[in-house]
Write a structure and sequence with these properties.
With 419 residues, the chain is an alpha/beta fold. It contains 13 helices and ten strands. The model has no long low-confidence stretch (mean pLDDT 91).
C-alpha cells in the first residue's frame, strides 16, 4: 500500500505542476495578445448565423447585442426550428423592437436525418448566402456579445494563414445550483485545453466562406453531430490555423442543476470522443484529474481502517495540497478573465468568501460528476439534445431517431436554467 500511496502522491503533484504550467501559458497569451482591428473599409461583408430551437434564458439580450454591432456590413441570419417554436415569437418581437433591417428569420425547411438539427440549420443558412458574403460567423443563443465582438472576431482573418477565429464561454461561479458551480469548475480546464489544442467553440466562431468551400466543410456537417470540434483537423489538413481571440471570452450566467448537467456532460464527452483531435490526451487528463484523486481518497479510508496513520496523513496532506493548488489556479485565472471581460464592458461576478469555500468543496464534487458522466458514455449509442434523439454509431454515422417541434411546455420552469 505504501508504494501505491507514494506513486499516487507523486502523480498528483506532477499533474498539478502540469496544470499550473498550462494555465500560465494561457494567461501569458491573454496578456500578450494585442487587438489589431481592421478599419471599416477592410472589413469583409459577413453573415452572422444563429440557429434556434427553444427559447434560451437570455435570448432577447443575445439578439439585441447581435443587432447592435460596431461593424459596417453584416446581416444576421436566424434559422428557427419551426414557426411554433418559442424562439420564433421572441426573435420576431426583438427584431421589431430594434427596428432592425439587417436580419432575416427563416424556419428550418429540411430536417436531415444524417446529422444534428443545428448542422441542418447551418447548412441551410450557408447555402442560401450569395457570393458577396466573404465571412460566416457562428454564434449560440447563450452568447451575449459586446459591441465590438464581430469586428474582433473577423479582423484576424486578414491573415492568409488563419482560416477560422474563435472565442470561448466563461461561466460564473456564483449560481444558486451546485450544478452551475460544477460546470464552472470543469469549464476552467476546458477553456485552457481548447486553447492549447486550437479547438474552436461554435458559440463564437468565424470562418472564411472560401475556406468553407475549399475544405468541403458543409459535407462534413451533413454527417455530423456537432459543427466545431471537427474543424481543427479539417482546417489543418488544408494548411489553415484556428486563432483564439482572448477578448472574445464571453460571460455566461445561465444556471443548471446536477441532473441536467450530467446530460450536458455526456453530450460533451461524446462529441470529444467522436471529433476531438487529441481524444487520448483527454482520456489521460481524466485519469489524472478524476481517477487518481478518487483512488487516493479510497486509500486514505483504507489506511485509517487499518490504523496506518502515517500513510493516511501523507495521503491527506497530498490531497489537501492538490485541491488547494487547483483552487488557487482557478482563482488566479478567474481574476485574469475578469480583467479581460471588464475591458469589454462585461460585468462579472465578485468572489466572496462563501463562494471560494463552495469552489473548494466543488472540486472533488466536479471530479466525481465528470467521472460518472465519462463512465456512462462508454456504452452510450443514443443521445438526446433539446428533445431530439440521435443514434450515434461513429463520427460520420449519425441518425436522427425521433423528431418533434419544440413547444412552450418544453421550457424549464426556472427561466435562467440552460436548455
Amino acid at each position: 500500500m505504501e508504494d501505491l500511496a507514494i506513486f499516487l502522491s507523486k502523480s498528483l503533484m506532477g499533474w498539478l505542476v502540469i496544470q499550473v504550467c498550462l494555465t500560465l501559458v494561457f494567461i501569458w497569451y491573454l496578456r500578450s495578445s494585442k487587438k489589431n482591428l481592421l478599419p471599416d473599409d477592410q472589413l469583409p461583408k459577413t453573415a452572422v448565423i444563429l440557429c434556434l430551437r427553444g427559447a434560451d434564458p437570455f435570448l432577447p439580450r443575445c439578439l439585441r447585442s447581435l443587432l447592435n454591432q460596431n461593424y459596417p456590413q453584416y446581416d444576421l441570419k436566424l434559422i428557427v426550428d419551426s414557426h411554433e417554436d418559442p424562439a420564433w415569437k421572441i426573435a420576431s418581437e426583438t427584431i421589431t423592437e430594434q427596428e432592425a433591417t439587417n436580419v432575416q428569420i427563416s424556419p428550418l425547411r429540411i430536417v436531415r436525418n444524417t446529422c444534428s438539427l443545428k448542422c441542418s440549420s447551418l447548412i441551410q443558412a450557408v447555402r442560401e448566402l450569395d457570393d458577396s458574403y466573404k465571412v460566416v460567423a457562428l454564434v449560440d443563443a447563450d452568447t451575449i456579445v459586446h459591441v465590438n465582438w464581430l469586428r474582433e472576431l473577423v479582423s484576424p482573418l486578414g491573415d492568409a494563414k488563419v482560416g477560422a477565429t474563435t472565442g470561448n464561454r466563461w461561466y460564473v461561479p456564483t449560481g444558486r445550483y451546485w450544478g452551475s458551480l460544477v460546470r464552472y469548475i470543469g469549464n476552467v480546464s476546458t477553456v485552457v485545453q481548447m486553447f492549447i489544442f486550437q479547438i474552436p467553440w461554435g458559440g463564437t466562431l468565424a470562418v472564411k466562406t472560401e475556406v468553407l468551400r475549399q475544405t468541403e466543410l458543409l459535407d462534413k456537417w451533413g454527417q455530423a453531430l456537432g459543427e466545431d470540434f471537427m474543424m481543427h483537423d479539417i482546417l489543418k489538413k488544408h494548411g489553415f490555423q484556428v486563432k483564439f481571440v482572448p477578448s472574445l471570452l464571453i460571460v455566461n450566467r445561465e444556471e443548471t442543476d446536477l441532473f441536467n448537467l450530467i446530460d450536458y456532460l455526456k453530450r460533451l464527452i461524446l462529441f470529444s470522443r467522436l471529433y476531438h483531435p487529441r481524444w487520448l490526451a483527454l482520456v489521460s487528463e481524466a485519469v489524472s484529474s478524476i481517477l487518481f484523486p478518487t483512488l487516493l481518497i479510497i486509500l486514505v479510508l483504507e489506511s485509517l481502517l487499518e490504523a496506518k496513520w502515517e500513510v493516511a496523513a501523507l495521503l491527506l496532506v497530498c490531497y489537501g495540497v492538490y485541491t488547494v493548488g487547483l483552487l488557487l489556479v482557478m482563482l488566479v485565472l478567474e481574476l485574469e478573465i475578469q480583467r479581460v471581460v471588464r475591458s469589454n464592458d462585461q460585468a462579472n461576478a465578485k468572489l466572496s468568501a462563501a463562494t471560494i469555500i463552495r469552489m473548494l468543496i466543488g472540486i472533488p464534487l466536479t471530479q466525481w460528476v465528470y467521472g460518472l458522466a465519462m463512465l456512462s458514455t462508454l456504452w452510450t449509442s443514443t443521445v438526446t439534445w433539446r428533445g431530439v434523439s440521435y443514434r450515434v454509431q461513429g463520427p460520420w454515422n449519425v441518425r436522427l431517431v425521433e423528431y418533434r417541434p419544440y413547444q412552450w411546455l418544453d421550457q424549464p420552469i426556472n427561466s435562467k436554467v440552460s436548455l
